[in-house]
Design brief:
Length: 190
């Protein structure tokens, strides 16, 4: 495999190519970026640090939160029903979540088709877990789905759901990154 150029302009030798077709970088480069910690557990691809997992989850959570908030605000402002509002919020969460990764890997030079594949591989599980947790909390908190934009319950439930989603999704991302999946796929292109 040829050398790859990282965003710093430094040339690094690449590691093995996995079933995703994405080359993963050597441990010295990954460790310098705070990415994978090869050789420290977690299977053949090494483990991922908690810091790396938190960063990846926060990146994903940012896109999800933007989409979720926009969807909830639109649905609530238009006085849509709970199901319609939640469906819009979930759809926008996936859209914004994928878009954040898509723009980052496109900026790194990937063509659109490859960038879409990377975004889907990097974010699908993470976004799905976040949305399941966040929307589950919103649905279970009494009165949260009926709260209006000016109600503290609306915002506290929404933000509280994001906090719980961060706590639940971080270990999932840690496990996936440690196996060369999830956000590890996108990191190879930054």
């Amino acid at each position: 495999m040829k050398d790859s150029t990282h965003h710093t302009g430094a040339t690094h030798d690449t590691g093995t190519t996995h079933d995703t077709g994405v080359a993963h970088e050597h441990a010295d480069h990954a460790a310098a970026d705070g990415a994978l910690s090869h050789g420290h557990g977690g299977g053949p691809h090494g483990g991922a640090s908690w810091g790396t997992a938190v960063k990846a989850t926060l990146h994903c959570l940012t896109g999800c939160a933007v989409g979720e908030i926009v969807g909830m605000v639109i649905g609530t402002a238009l006085m849509w029903g709970n199901v319609s509002t939640m469906v819009l919020a979930i759809a926008l969460s996936f859209l914004f979540g994928y878009s954040f990764t898509l723009f980052a890997v496109r900026r790194a030079g990937l063509d659109l088709r490859s960038a879409v594949r990377v975004a889907l591989a990097a974010d699908t599980v993470s976004i799905a877990v976040m949305e399941l947790v966040d929307n589950g909390i919103i649905a279970l908190v009494p009165g949260a789905m009926d709260a209006q934009l000016a109600d503290g319950l609306f915002w506290s439930t929404l933000l509280g759901g994001f906090a719980v989603a961060l706590l639940v999704t971080t270990p999932v991302n840690k496990w996936m990154i440690g196996r060369g999946r999830g956000h590890a796929v996108a990191h190879a292109h930054h």
